[in-house]
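Researcher: Please translate sequence to structure tokens.
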Amino acid sequence: MSAVEEKPTVRPQYRVVSVKKAKKPEGMEGNNWHCYIIERGTSVVTGQKPGTLKAVTEHAEQVASDLNARSGIGAGSPYAARKSK
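Model: Translation complete:
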């Protein structure tokens, strides 16, 4: 008789799937706007931010990292209460 080894379920991580030049949102200042899309499975987060492509991409990557931390993926969340020993 052989034991069946269960593989741990790996949840997908949030990841930046695109950062593209966008029109300035109505009522906002500046001309250099970008739209970014972050996905995890069927969850989609979109945002707009002014700045260079590089700066907005870095911002989107940080947002994805923060979302992963808050959802328990990877290292512990910086927002979660510490467990007592």
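Researcher: Any highlights?
Model: The mean pLDDT is 84.
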